[in-house]
Amino acid sequence: MTIAIIAHDGKKPEMVQFLNEFRDTLQSKKVNLIATGTTGAKTEAAGYEVEKLLSGPLGGDAQIAARIAEGKVDMVIFFRDPMDKHPHEPDIFMLMRLCDVHNVALATNPATAGLLMKGLE
Ligand SMILES: O=C(CO)COP(=O)(O)O
């Protein structure tokens, strides 16, 4: 299954914590990871293999949204920072909208992401 990992800058430490906490689940289920650029670099640094797309503000969210539309993504873990402004807000909304259009599981905070991981276990 393909899981997309995305985190805004203010949430990247929580994303790394999540990757460490659920390492067994994420690596035992033959999960294929894709990520926006900077999130992907941090995911790699945490010891994962991951396909890195463009950084979010440069179109990474849009690339992941396109893959969702093509049926190539099964789950999205998107740690959004609701306390910050983002120049690519339209891309973010597009990604989340397409999750709903195509019934793709979407977690936008660690509590929900943890429950999705428990669903995979
Ligand atoms: O901006 C993002 C999500 O909207 C994340 O992009 P980066 O992973 O490149 O920081």
Verbal overview:
- The protein has 121 residues and is of the alpha/beta class.
- It has a single domain (2-120), classed as Methylglyoxal synthase-like domain (Rossmann fold).
- The protein is 49% helix and 17% strand.
- It has helices spanning 12-21, 23-28, 37-45, 60-69, 89-101, 110-120; strands at 2-7, 32-35, 51-52, 75-79, 105-107.
- It has a 5-stranded parallel sheet, with helices on both faces.
- Helix 3 (37-45) links the parallel strand 2 (32-35) and strand 3.
- Helix 4 runs parallel beside helix 5.
- The model has no long low-confidence stretch (mean pLDDT 96).
- 1,3-dihydroxyacetonephosphate binds next to helix 3 and helix 4.
List keywords for this structure.
single chain, 121 residues, alpha/beta, 6 helices, 5 strands, globular, binds 1,3-dihydroxyacetonephosphate
How many strands, which pairing sense, and closed or not: the largest β-sheet? Answer: 5 strands, parallel
- Counting DSSP H or I runs of 4 or more residues, the number of helices is 6
Helix content: 40-55%
Rounded to the nearest angstrom, the distance between the terminal CA atoms is 13 Å
CATH architecture: 3-Layer(aba) Sandwich
**CATH H-level superfamily title:** Methylglyoxal synthase-like domain
CATH class placement: Alpha Beta
Major beta sheet, strand line-up: 3-2-1-4-5
> Under CATH, the topology is which?
Rossmann fold
Task: Give the helices and strands as they follow along the chain.
Answer: EHHEHEHEHEH
**Average pLDDT reading:** 96
Which compounds are bound in this model? 1,3-dihydroxyacetonephosphate
Cα Rg: 13 Å
